[in-house]
Design brief:
The protein is of the alpha+beta class and 89 residues long. Helix content is 64%, strand content 12%. It has a two-stranded antiparallel ribbon. Strand 1 (3-8) and strand 2 (13-17) form a beta hairpin.
């Protein structure tokens, strides 16, 4: 099922938003927010979390915005950093 969006004025065609894209975007954004809350709870700044996980801060922002999706390996890296920080508290 496709959801019609506004017509694209420059190209005079309709743009459709795939509902699966919306679901994946929301899940990814929610996961990023959960991780940020866990990091904040143990006093770990997001920039430091990214540095320890070997992930660029801009990449984290793109994950959060839904522009790109992380690999499972990268999720595991970030989760490991936050888990280690929470164990230290």
């Amino acid at each position: 099922m496709r959801i019609p969006a506004k017509s694209c004025q420059a190209q005079k065609r309709k743009i459709y938003i795939d509902p699966q894209f919306i679901l994946n975007y929301e899940r990814g954004m929610n996961k990023c927010i959960e991780i940020e809350q866990a990091a904040k709870k143990c006093g770990l700044p997001i920039a430091e979390m990214c540095k320890r996980a070997g992930i660029n801060r801009a990449t984290w922002q793109r994950w959060k915005s839904g522009a790109i999706s992380p690999t499972m390996r990268n999720w595991d890296k970030v989760n490991a950093v936050v888990d280690a920080a929470s164990d230290g508290k």
